[in-house]
């Protein structure tokens, strides 16, 4: 495996650790353990920083117009291609919680995509 492969693996691991710790923090807060929640949140922010650094080394970060375009493609690919397949399979498997999670995420992706498109077109109008 090349260093780029290692960076990709590290990016995935660090990203997931960040989300996992934020989820653990939410649970700790539900349990009234504010001190533990804050420890998880601080660690999550560190993991996020590690993931961002890995991503920058993998592909660099373009200028904002390009990032908006890339985000539009990414969001659209997910709600148009990926989530419908996920929903279909989850329905076949009768996993209704997963169906609902995928539907909600897909709707949200569409909103994000639209917001990014509006933002990009208003930037393009300004220039
Ligand atoms: Fe880390
Ligand atoms: Fe999204």
Write the layout of secondary structure elements.
Layout: H1 3-30, H2 34-59, H3 64-92, H4 96-126
Helix pairs in contact: 1-2, 3-4
One fe (ii) ion binds at residues 14, 17, 47, 50.
What does the model show?
This protein has 127 residues and is mainly alpha-helical. The chain has two domains: 3-59, Ferritin, core subunit, four-helix bundle (Ferritin, Up-down Bundle), CATH 1.20.1260.10; 64-126. Helices cover 90% and strands 0% of the residues. The chain contains four helices and no strands. The chain has helices at 3-30, 34-59, 64-92, 96-126. Helix 1 (3-30) runs antiparallel to helix 2. The relative contact order is 0.09. The chain binds fe (ii) ion (FE2) (2 copies). The site of one fe (ii) ion (FE2) has 4 residues, from helix 1 and helix 2.
Portion of residues within helices? over 70%
Ions, cofactors and other ligands present here are: fe (ii) ion
| CA radius of gyration | 18 Å
What are the segments in which pLDDT stays under 50 over at least 5 consecutive residues? none
The total strand number stands at 0
Structural class: mainly alpha
Structural domain count: 2
Largest sheet: none
Number of helices: 4
Assign an overall shape. Answer: globular
Summarize the structure.
The chain has helices spanning 3-30, 34-59, 64-92, 96-126. By secondary structure, it is mostly helical.
Labels describing this entry:
127 residues, mainly alpha, Ferritin, 4 helices, 90% helix, 0% strand, binds fe (ii) ion
